[in-house]
Design goal:
Layout lengths: L2 H23 L5 E5 L6 H17 L3 E5 L6 H8 L7 E6 H8 L10 E9 L3 E5 L6 H10 L5 E5 L4 H13 L4 E5 L2 H9 L5 E4 L5 H5 L3 E6 L30 E7 L4 H15 L2 H10 L8 H21 L4
Parallel strand pairs: 1-2, 1-3, 6-7, 6-8
Antiparallel strand pairs: 3-10, 4-10, 5-8, 5-9
């Protein structure tokens, strides 16, 4: 081999080693974690728990940044337009998928690379502390007062709204949907008996439940919650709240479309390790949300399925 050939081969080897080392080094700086909701909400709380776990476990810095507005579209828009290098990620949710289904945002799922699911939040039907004792009692009350029973939801045209509608359909009557700008307002009015029921996450109602101001009477899910094991699901009572297909209130990590496969794999590794930690699973149990190990291509498929269902539901439930 000539001197030139040996030199070229050596340079190629050095370049390959340098490239591999650069890939292995990701991340070399902090990662922005954009949460498209207000500080203090359920998604923000989960993100900050992950922030601590990732720092403790892996010595990687996640910088949580709240960018609320437009049902998640403002914050996720920042993620979609960020450089596809893995240093900006965000929290996607089913609420934004509902906005996409109704063309209320210009965002599309193709603008994102899906990393890992953080949580699923089985929504619950709640009533004031001295309201109907059981789900059957509440549905009987709705039947006695068709079109008059009020159900509060944080926002409208979202999953909470869908399940309020499914509750009314289980009773076979109409109802009054009362949308609010957030869960804290819903729970306050429910405790004050300004509304007769509400559809909320366990994480945003647990304090009032434990204090005895309100009570859950039904879970919109396939399994009972560990945090409230005595509360039955609609399914076990014989009511189908998923007539149009699978539908979950979920939060998941996304990156911009087009990130390199090795960077995606590294992000999946970082977030999966934190999400699957005993600490985060305990945190989930304490706050009434579920944790699983859905990542990468499997998460792609789940998002497509939920989006397909929401596209169908949008024409049947939401009114514009």
């Amino acid at each position: 081999m000539s001197l030139l050939s040996r030199t070229m081969a050596a340079l190629a080897c050095v370049c390959a080693i340098s490239t591999a080392a650069a890939k292995d080094a990701f991340p070399e700086r902090s990662i922005r974690f954009i949460i498209p909701w207000n500080a203090g909400g359920s998604n923000d709380i989960a993100a900050r728990e992950l922030q601590q776990i990732v720092a403790e476990q892996q010595k990687i810095t996640l910088v949580v940044e709240n960018a609320p507005g437009a049902t998640g579209a403002i914050g996720l828009g920042k993620v979609a337009s960020a450089p596809p290098d893995g240093y900006v990620v965000g929290m996607g949710t089913s609420s934004t998928l509902a906005q996409i289904a109704q063309n209320l945002t210009t965002l599309r799922n193709e603008q994102f690379t899906h990393i890992a699911r953080v949580s699923t939040d089985p929504l619950m039907l709640l009533v004031p502390k001295d309201g109907p004792a059981t789900l059957e009692d509440f549905l009987a009350e709705m039947k006695k007062n068709p079109g008059k029973v009020s159900i509060g939801t944080p926002g409208t045209n979202n999953l909470n709204h869908i399940f309020a509608e499914m509750t009314a359909r289980a009773a076979g009557v109409g109802y009054v949907n009362v949308p609010y700008p957030g869960g804290s307002r819903v729970i306050a009015d429910l405790a004050g008996k300004q509304i007769q029921a509400a559809v909320l996450k366990p994480s945003e109602s647990k304090g009032q439940i434990d204090a005895g101001y309100v009570k859950p009477i039904g879970v919109f899910g396939n399994e009972r919650l560990k945090v409230y094991p005595d509360v039955p699901t609609f399914k076990e009572k014989g009511y189908d709240v998923y007539p149009y297909g699978p539908l979950v209130q979920m939060a998941y990590v996304v990156a911009p479309a087009g990130i390199p496969p090795d960077v995606r794999a590294r992000l999946i590794e970082i977030f999966s390790r934190a999400i699957q930690s005993d600490k985060f699973k305990t945190f989930g149990d304490q706050n009434g949300f579920l944790v699983d190990d859905l990542t990468g291509d499997a998460l792609d498929a789940e998002v497509r399925d939920v989006q397909t269902t929401l596209n169908s539901v949008a024409t049947k439930v939401f009114k514009h």
